Amino acid sequence: MTDRLKNKVAIITGGVAGIGLGIAECYIREGANVVLTANHNVDGGKKAVAKFGDDRALFVQQDVSKEADWQKVIDATVSKFGKLDILVNNAGVGGDGKPIEDKPLADWQQVIDINLTGNFLGIKAGINAMKQTNNATGSIINVSSVAGLVGLPMAPDYSASKGGTRLLTRAVASSLARRGIKIRVNSVHPGWIDTNIVPDDAKAQILQTIPAGHLGEPKDIGEICVYLGSDESKYAIGGEFTVDGGVRA
């Protein structure tokens, strides 16, 4: 299928590599215009815009934990494309694998600031932009993790941030729906996806835990995000969409 997102405008944070780029590729295929953000991977942003075309794509450097950067992204989006239909809160960082008793407060705070506070700021900015430019309609998709459903023993900070995202999603979705605001909010929970975050020396061991027998691809997350961004998902409110090859089945 094509044109499932025709004439829609989407912001995808962390959208220039890995899962974020996979989402962007699916969105471009389906007719959306995309605003891609990243904090450090500026070269990746330039390459993505060159690939998609600057008539369809825009890159904005952003620290998602900074409220001023969110306003910068919203302003750039509206200036170029005139509105906001879809926000995909995808940007995130992993933990360092340290036991909780050895973890410095600064390391904990960095993960929470980016993964959870960044999503709060994005939701806040996205709702206000949709109210101002899109008749208070749209879709917000928060990329959580299977670690937001089941705690990972060596990633307490990551699990806490992703679990927080899961319940933040549900609370905001319910609040908007009960107030009659037609902005849907849902979460996506990827399992092991074949990106450079997965260590090569750990893949064999990881594969043994996946019933499907292989890692997922970034586009596997992109496809569920197409559904959630499209009008097909008009009745999906506060849902949790797990895409993990059967690990949580």
Automatic annotation (TrEMBL):
SUPFAM superfamilies: NAD(P)-binding Rossmann-fold domains (SSF51735). Its EC number is 1.1.1.47. The keyword Oxidoreductase applies. It holds the Pfam family adh_short_C2. InterPro entries: NAD(P)-bd_dom_sf, Sc_DH/Rdtase_CS, SDR_fam. One of its GO terms (molecular function) is glucose 1-dehydrogenase [NAD(P)+] activity. Keywords: Oxidoreductase. Belongs to the short-chain dehydrogenases/reductases (SDR) family. NCBIfam families: PRK07231.1 (NF005559). This is Glucose 1-dehydrogenase.
